[in-house]
Design goal:
The complex is a heterotrimer of chains A (321), B (153) and C (373). Chain A has 12 helices and no strands. By secondary structure, chain A is mainly alpha-helical. Chain A is globular. With 153 residues, chain B is an alpha/beta fold. In chain B, strand 3 and strand 4 form a beta hairpin. The longest helix of chain B is centred in the C-terminal third of the chain and has 12 residues. Chain C is α+β, with helices and mostly antiparallel strands. Chain C is globular, with a radius of gyration of 22 Å. Classes of the chains: A mainly alpha (321), B alpha/beta (153), C alpha+beta (373). Chains in contact: A-C, B-C. At the B-C interface, strand 3 and helix 3 of B face helix 9, strand 6, strand 7, strand 8 and helix 13 of C.
Amino acid sequence: MLTALTFIFMLTAAFAVLGFIAVSAMFLIWWERKVSAHIQSRFGPMRVGWHGVLQSIADAVKLLLKEDIRPARADKLIWWLAPFFAVVPSVMVFVAIPFGRTLVPRDLNIGILYIMAISSVCVIGVFMAGWGSNNKYSLLGGMRAGAQIISYELPLVLSIIAVVMRAGTPSMQKIVASQGSCWNIFHPDMMLVSVIYMISATAEVNRTPFDIPEAESELVAGFHTEYSGMKFAMFFVGEYTNLFIVAAIATTLFLGGWHGPILPPVVWFLIKTYALVFVWMWVRWTFPRVRVDQLMAFAWKVLTPAALVNLAIVGWLLLKR
Amino acid sequence: MKKMRQDEIFADIKAVFPEIQEEAGSGAAVIPKDLLLKVARYLRGEPLAFDNLHCVTAIDRKEKIEMVYILYSVSKRRALTLKIYLSPEDLNIASLASVWRSADWLERETYDMFGVVFSGHPDMRRILNPYDWKGYPLRKDYTHPEFIPKPRL
Amino acid sequence: MNMSQTKDIRTEEFLINMGPQHPSTHGVLFLEVKLDGEIVVDCTTHIGYLHRSMEKIAENRTYTQFIPFTDRIDYVASMNNNLGYVTAVEKLMNLEVPERAKYIRVIVAELNRIASHLIGIGTFAQDLGAFATPLFYCFREREKIIDIFDRICGNRLTYNYMRIGGVQFDLPKGIDETIKQFIAYMRPKLDDYDTLLTYNAIFLARSKGIGVLPKSLAIDYSVSGPNLRASGVRWDIRKEEPYLVYEKMEFDIPVGVNGDAWDRYKVRIEEMRQSLRIVEQALGALPEGDPTVKAGRIQKIAPGEAYMRTENPRGELGFYIVSDGSTYPYRLKIRAPSFSNLALLPELVKGLKVADIICVLGSLDILMGEIDR
């Protein structure tokens, strides 16, 4: 029965999460520019606020005020809906992410399964953007994105299943609790799994070396070429939110979630998540891009068999116990 | 591999094509227009092995158009310049695109600038000027409203 | 769906226009690409967007007045263009150049070769997706070279430094210290590029085996420069027909094995190492004297013609000058290396994927200013 108090709690939690997403996305955008700048021996944003901290706010204001240009022959409904399909699932995922010992909006007992299912809807948004723009480059970008994300879903889910098998439950909080004594990544059978997860997740969020859907030098801007103003901002924020989500899931599954001495659990969670985000940014600004057929070959011929083999090993070890 | 001196190359070619003359001053081989393709094929093959058509251009000498072909041999380290004189009424010459692939674009540029038509060229179109340009810019009698020759120093 | 039904499924060919404005066609180049899915069926090049009719302008300027125009042919390697032009005119006039001027010319030409290759490599890496990081490192190195040129002749990009019979200014005091420091700084940086990029697995997967140029095809198309050397032909004008003081310099010619995009990239890195060697030797052997020109600025040249080719960073730059006895050239033909290099593109990309077109184009290191003149 839904009492008024429960309802108020739920509303507070929802707004807290939305607020966190907004601030976090802005922070990540600034941080990406700073990290990339220092890797490339330059400074990055320096003018707006101390070392450009307020740059994201300036960008948000700019994007809000920009003219929303729609291509004349774009498929109106699909083109208009696409950004929502890209952003809303990412926000919905936050329901099950455990920020702290009791700081989880709803500890779903199908936690990770729910996350995987909902985040798969993002690919629809990308494909709708590519098709709806009525533009050959966008279509190519959208098709590539679709193929890429769907192909890398398989090793991603297989590696997550290994962790679920180990913990015995898909609930996120219980997975974190099971790592109380030792983080998952330090178990020998989990090491390869975490590597597979990291690589597949890079492909899922379209980051270099797998950023083919937005391959700037070939397709101008890929599936979001024809978007401007707030719609483009939604794709942009969606991308950084996705980055945060995969880092948060990696922290939960492999790095022990919010476990850690002295500091409050939520601080530990954030430290570990942002450390992983930094690793992803580092990788982005170091490596060239993989070609689309090499990408597919890698997913189907290397990662999926490796994940299957690993799954078998984890299962066998569990049976032995 | 014995290096053939310039006069030896000339003697070799003259033995096969007696109509070739040597131009004073530049040392180029002047050949009649209709022999171009035969001479080119001969120069391409052994033993002369001029495998590199380096430059194709034309000079507008008012009473005639001078075609210049600069050939090099990468394998045998030789150089040769061929010259053909065309009269302005008959600006038609055989294309060397079947002998050297580099002739393709070089001949298109010469057509674009001088109006020399290369018969047998796979794609005789302008290359540097827009495709619907009128006139041949590098001819000495070319005029254009925006082109004002400067006074001579 | 059984097999007989799939045979009737037709895939349409897809026409994509790359350019003239595009993030990775180096300059204004228009490619019409016919695709079957991701595979390139045909590619047509349209050039001429940067045509400035330099050859016609040359017939209206004195020989010295044309030197700033040569800067703008290949604006990334201006010193080499200047060099090609003035050596052609000097060959026509049979003019001797003072020894010091020859050494200075070699130093600046080789430094410009390094600067030009840095851009070629940086943009190549950027096209492959190593988004901006190698490019920024290359430009950081290039800044140092440009600062040196700024001190020598006052310009950062189009130098207008060489004159017929010498150079415009003598080297400023203390520049040899700066150049030596630069050489010491640059050598480990080239090893850095090897660590970051050259042997990176993704870079190798993207560029090895792509755009293979066989030896015979390269010579047939009159390809020159690093592209020719990457295909296995040991041909460098600085060794074959030495000009200036190159016969006194000790340097190797890097030669590739397969002629693919990776070889072209590697040859450029190795050429930078060799250029550093040449600059070092030239600095050490720099004689005393006055390298500037004492003769007048207007040359009246007796009727005749001359063809001179020099080794530009992109290939063999040739100047064919015909004079009729007046102060203006009668005909000036610029044989640009990238013109012949680009003619290859449709041949090389047939059967490759869309991403590979950019890879091949980047590895050929063309410059539209040269092609269109």
